[in-house]
Amino acid sequence: MSDTPPDSVTQTFSAHRELLFSIVYNMLGSIADTEDVVQETWLSWTARNQRPTDRASSAEPIENPRAYLVRIAVNRALAHQAALSRRRETYVGPWLPEPLVSDMADIADIADTAVRAESVSMALLVVLETLTPLERGVFVLHEVFGYPHTEIAEILGRSPAAIRQLAHRAREHVQARRPRYEPAPHVRQQVTERFLAAALGGDLDALLEILAPEVTLWSDGGGKSRAAGLHPVHGRDKVARLFAALAPRSGTGLAVGYRRVNGDPSAVLFAGDAPYAVLVLDLTPDGDRVCGIYTVANPDKLVHVN
Asked: Could you say which of 73, 213, 227, 231 is the most buried, measured as most Cβ atoms within 10 Å of its Cβ?
């Protein structure tokens, strides 16, 4: 590839950019950090494809650009994990992944977003935060994107046996905390609408009816926006009474826009033209009640929301 035309270098990278973004985002849960990693991968790619006259020494041609780019991106994402962990140690209140928000029709209608739709749900991303960086990388590559263990071993520079062990441990950990089920999109939409009507209206009885007994509320304000507290709130009674109490102060004047968040029908609350919070619900297996509520109100995490 030493004589690869610049246009071809750019086109090859562009053809794989959405795949790289989705893999890295699922590993990091941060759009800004994901974009940094993708940019670093681009710089590495262009440097590798300089003409021989521009390089100190020529390199072997890259026979599989996709594999090369994924390997660079995954390993750079792992290198970013240390900085992310340090930031989260001083984060105020619960930390939630930065939501990927799109219009309800985008994922179905725009081909360019098809790969980004592989981003996992907010609920699963929260579970993935409890894995080690290596376990999370292996889980994302194998369970979400279908990479075989042998190829993951080449990407991470480890033996296939070590990768299989990491994959087994990660899968067991996730399955113990996140049962495999997925409510139909129309069910999720209906429950979201019912929940918001009750929450914004301060209807305690309706909230008690729609919330599961074991419901948990995660509210991420990052110390920069009003949140439900510095710790997750557990239990139907506590969560219902919290929303009922907050409604007269926080619910007035908010507009609701229905969006897809990480591929799932969810809601964005707006104060005027500015995003106020993203709300994602996790449902019980029967789809009738809410067992998890994720609200992201940190303005730094809403810069990509419109």
From this structure: 73
Q: What is the dihedral of CA 13, 14, 16, 19, to 10 degrees?
A: 130
Which of 30-39, 56-65, 72-81, 266-275 bottoms out in mean pLDDT, i.e. has the lowest? 56-65
Q: What is the pLDDT of residues 104-148, one digit of tens each?
A: 764 444 444 444 556 689 999 999 999 999 999 999 999 999 999
Q: Cβ atoms within 10 A of the Cβ of 267, count?
A: 20
Using CA atoms, how far apart are residues 215 and 233, in angstroms rounded to an integer? Answer: 8
- Are residues 228 and 280 both part of a single domain? yes
Does the residue 42 lie in any domain? Answer: yes
Can you tell me the distance from the alpha carbon of 148 to that of 145, in angstroms, rounded to the nearest whole number?
9
For the segment 197-202, the average pLDDT, to the nearest whole number, is: 92
Let me know whether 295 and 265 are in one domain.
yes
Q: Is residue 208 located within the same domain as residue 169?
A: no
